[in-house]
């Protein structure tokens, strides 16, 4: 890349020739390119995951106790197969209070019928929460899909 200003007669007469010297510019650009390549961290294509820590303790000797509460469409409550009438809220509270008083609470599985009004499900869950039952879950949600 050279640039000549003037005519050929100016070169013969000893005029000033204007040329851009690109060699230092290329040297500086190469040095900068090498510095950027060195300073850019190498990207690793790894997925960082928190893996579970192996537990060398023995598994629990017995599976946890499960209490099954079946809730029928008319509000009838079944406690492990024993029928509690729909209006007998005191008996249900007595059963849940006994569960809450245990030092190692069993799991309470609430299985509502597909046609049961939500107020019955909410009532049982509110009673369990008020009494301190902490291991409660709704089972059989696949019927509502």
Instruction: Kindly state the number of beta strands.
Output: 5
Main CATH class of the domain at 66-144: Alpha Beta
Mean pLDDT: 81
Strand residues, percent: 5-15%
Shape descriptor: elongated
For the record, give the distance between the C-alpha atoms at the N and C termini, rounded to a whole number.
74 Å
Helix content: 25-40%
Low-confidence stretches: none
CA radius of gyration is: 41 Å
Largest sheet: 5 strands, mixed
Query: Would you tell me which CATH topology of the domain at 66-144 applies?
Result: Nucleotidyltransferase, domain 5
If you had to describe this structure to a student in words, what would you say it looks like?
The protein has 145 residues and is α/β, with parallel strands linked by helices. The protein has a domain at 66-144: Nucleotidyltransferase, domain 5, CATH 3.30.420. It is built from 4 helices and 5 strands; from the N terminus they run ααβββαβαβ. A 5-stranded mixed beta sheet has the order 3-2-1-4-5, covered by helices on one side. It is elongated and about 120 Å long. The model has no long low-confidence stretch (mean pLDDT 81).
């Amino acid at each position: 890349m050279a640039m000549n200003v003037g005519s050929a007669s100016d070169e013969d007469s000893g005029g000033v020739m204007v040329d851009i010297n690109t060699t230092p510019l290329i040297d500086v650009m190469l040095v900068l390119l090498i510095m950027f390549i060195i300073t850019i961290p190498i990207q690793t294509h790894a997925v960082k995951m928190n893996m579970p820590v192996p537990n060398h303790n023995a598994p629990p000797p017995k599976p946890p106790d499960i209490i099954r509460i079946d809730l029928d469409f008319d509000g009838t409550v079944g406690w492990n197969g024993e029928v509690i009438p729909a209006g007998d809220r005191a008996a249900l509270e007595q059963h849940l209070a006994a569960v809450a008083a245990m030092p190692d609470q069993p799991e309470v599985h609430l299985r509502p019928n597909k046609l049961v009004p939500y107020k019955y499900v909410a009532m049982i869950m509110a009673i369990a929460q008020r009494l301190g039952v902490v291991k409660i879950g709704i089972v059989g949600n696949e019927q509502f899909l």
